[in-house]
Amino acid sequence: MNAVVQTIEDLIQYAEKELGLGLEDRTYARNQLYELFQVEPEDCLGNDRPLEEMTEELVQYGIEHGIAEEGTEIRFETKILGLVTPSPGEVVMKFADIKQKEGIKAATDYLYRLSVKNNYIRLGDISRNICWYADGDKGKIAITINLSKPEKDPKQVLAEKAFKGKKYPKCMLCIENIGFCGTAIHPARQTLRIVPVTLNGEEWHMQYSPYVYYDEHCIVFRDVHIPMKITDVTMSRLLEFVEKTPHYFLGSNADLPIVGGSILAHDHYQGGKKVLPMFFTGLRKMYEVKNGVAVGVRDWYNSVVTVKGKDREAVAFKAATIVAAWKNYSDESADIICCTGEERHNTVTPVASKEGEEFTLDLILRNNRTDEKHPYGIFHPTEDMHNIKKEAIGLIEAMGLFILPGRLKGELYELMKEIQKEKPDLERIFNDEKLSKHSGLIVQAMANRGTGLSADEARNAILERVNEVCFRILECTAVFKNSEEGQEAFDRFMSTVTTGEGIKGEQKKRGRPPLSGLN
Questions:
Q1: What is the rounded end-to-end Cα distance, in angstroms, of the chain?
Q2: What whole-number distance in Å separates Cα of residue 338 and Cα of residue 331?
Q3: DSSP string, 88-130
Q4: Strand pairing category for 358-367 and 195-199
Q5: Interstrand relation of 343-344 and 304-309 (parallel, antiparallel or unpaired)
């Protein structure tokens, strides 16, 4: 018995049980695998085995027999698993059937589970992420050091540099990713499965993020490759989605650089379970209750206008009027200038959700203006915080979940080791290319906690400083600061979009998002 034939049969049995691979497709997949591994059929029965064990054996066999090249292990694994995953069309039909018979939550459960079981969502890698919560005066935030994306080895770097092929698909969100074999510069996507979504009469699709940052992190993307743009229709689409899928939220990154997401060239939204910290805050102040629609501001670190009501269209209309007013609003006393010539600076990060019969649109006010003092953005982390986070602060961070780079694991560990000594070697830190950027952090940690610390004390001392930076980053993104002057400026803006009628005063509700909700 050829060992690889047995492993193929074990994988087919796994696909039947865990992926729902049908009889005809099982036969097809088996023959495709025989051809791929250049082996002859043999009679054998499948065994129940862990997926990781089977894929490791098949990938290693492929490398040893020249079927795959070293450095392409993940691409080759994705190709194998793509052959045993039900076809894209079959998944769409299955999703629709479950939705009709059992409801939308059962349908999304099916798609998410499939994405995990075929290793499109690599939970084994994601489980390596380091996650913790930090307490602040306006609620907790969540912080993750992201270790799920594998670092590039030298061979991969060289392959990317040497790549001369056509850029296809145009981006990671294009529908052409379905079944794509991958290249040196673009991941393989044979295991990707998506489902159609109609929003505002337009064709969109939903998929899950392969490296989920929180529970059931999904992406809803336009079928055509067009740039992101926040318009009145954006509000309608977001609310329509949460009406159809009320157990998820859906939000959009801002449509401008610095305050936007990493992919501005393709219109898309991000959603998932409502576990992000901002959802666990209440309102700081209510400005208006009129025609069944309430308008207030979140008790949160950045500047969030909240619109609530049971009438979806009325909520969308009110939100759209606020966004339109903000795009043209300036208050130089608060450093807010809406435009420089033809260049627009004001935009929003809108987030829709639904609880019971009530719709909510949270509008996180953003401004991407720069000046000589703030070349990276007036409402962006200043350079003294770039050792922790330099990238654009998008939807996820603005809602209180920080995705920090994997390099910090090793760098912070070195700092922790140093302050366990009675006499830390600061000269080593200051002269080290990777650690010198943290010199201010370790000096402050020593000033606050001293030296000669235990391992736990050292960890707490360093993470306290990281937590502080993350809170400061959120406060940097606030266009109206959480000071008396800043809140007076916020009041001035709100007076332009509300009548001043209704309830005023504090309305707070805080809780702790479940840690298990974060991956």
A1: 41
A2: 9
A3: HHHHHHHHHHHHHHH-HHHHHHHHHHHHHHTTSS-HHHHTT-E
A4: unpaired
A5: unpaired
pTM: 0.92
The edge-to-edge listing of strands for the beta sheet with 218-222 is: 195-199, 202-208, 218-222, 268-272, 249-251, 346-355, 358-367, 304-309, 293-298, 283-290
Cα–Cα distance for residue pair 216/229, rounded to 1 Å: 25
CA-to-CA dists, residue 74 to 1, 158, 182, 189, angstroms: 27, 17, 10, 11
- Distance of alpha carbon 404 from alpha carbon 462, whole angstroms: 15
- Residue 250 sits at φ, ψ, to 5 deg, of -145, 130
Pairing, β 358-367 against β 218-222: unpaired
Give Cα separations from 394 to 252, 385, 389, 469 (angstroms): 9, 16, 12, 16
Query: Contact at 8 Å (CB) between 252 and 395?
Result: yes
CA atoms within 13 A on the CB side of 196: 12
Mean pLDDT across the chain? 92
Query: 516 falls in which pLDDT band (50, 70, 90)?
Result: very low
The torsion defined by the Cα of 236, 347, 146 and 434, in degrees rounded to 10, comes to 170
Q: Among 191-200, 245-254, 377-386, where is mean pLDDT lowest?
A: 377-386
